[in-house]
Amino acid sequence: MKRIELLKPYIKGKKVLDVGFVQHNWEKSISNPNWLHDKIRNEAKETIGIDCLEDDVNMLKSKGYNAICADAEEFNLNDKFDIIIAGELIEHLSNPGKFLCSARKHLKKEGKLIITTPNVFAFGNIARIMKLLFNIENIDNPEHVNWYSKQNLFNLAERHGFKVLEYKTFYPDRYNPIFEKLPLRETKSKIFASLSLK
Q1: Which residues, 6 or more positions from 78, have their beta carbon under 8 angstroms from its beta carbon?
Q2: Helices assigned H by DSSP within 26-95
Q3: Strands, E, within 103-147: which ranges?
Q4: How remote is the C-alpha of 66 from its chain's centroid?
């Protein structure tokens, strides 16, 4: 199932904050048919994107996007949202707990925080780790500072006043469908977690 299909039941007709919405730069973002922010905008009642890439945010604003330049770890928008989405963001953050505290302040009482992130126990990642052990390949992404599993993502959420409502793993928008047929548990390459305030 594609990420947007997992998100649709949460975002349809809602006020949504998309944190870290620029996909590397504004040109890659708007030219990518799988750009999550555009898909969210098509479903939500209102969508605001925040990102720390000031030039890219300004360019997207000039193209009609509701965008704000802000740091994901410490943002203050004086607003509340039904849904906050952090798609493939948390693994980039130096202080993910600060992000969760900022998100808490911006959620409505019944609001939800949705996080997607690479799954450390994905079959492909385990294969990459084996290659690394045998000096065949360097798997490090220069932009990532954390790996998440189900348990450590749950622990982080609990420490910052969230409870997990839904958890599943999924394949990214571009993947080989042969993997769907493998009888493997918890090994899909991405994590999807929906959190609510405790």
Answers
A1: none
A2: 26-31, 36-43, 54-62
A3: 107-118
A4: 19
Give the distance from CA 48 to its chain's centroid. Answer: 15
Strands (E), 13-137: 15-19, 46-51, 67-69, 81-87, 107-118
Query: pLDDT of 136-191, one tens digit each?
Result: 766 667 788 898 999 999 999 999 999 999 999 887 765 555 555 555 555 578 89
Query: 7 Cβ partners below 8 Å, 6+ apart?
Result: 39, 40, 43, 85, 114
Closest CA to 34 of 148, 171, 184, 198: 171
C-alpha 184 chain-centroid distance: 23
Check if the beta carbon of residue 51 is closer than 8 Å to that of residue 22: yes
The token pair at 26 is 């504004």
Strand partners, 17: 48, 84
What pLDDT, on the 0 to 100 scale, is given for residue 103?
Answer: 98
Q: How many CA atoms lie within 13 A of 188 on its CB side?
A: 25
Torsion angle in degrees (nearest 10) through CA of 48, 52, 55, 58: 20
State the DSSP H helix or E strand holding residue 174, giving kind and residue range, or none if neither: none
**Beta bridge partners of residue 81, listed in sequence order:** 107
Distance CA 159, CA 169 (A): 22
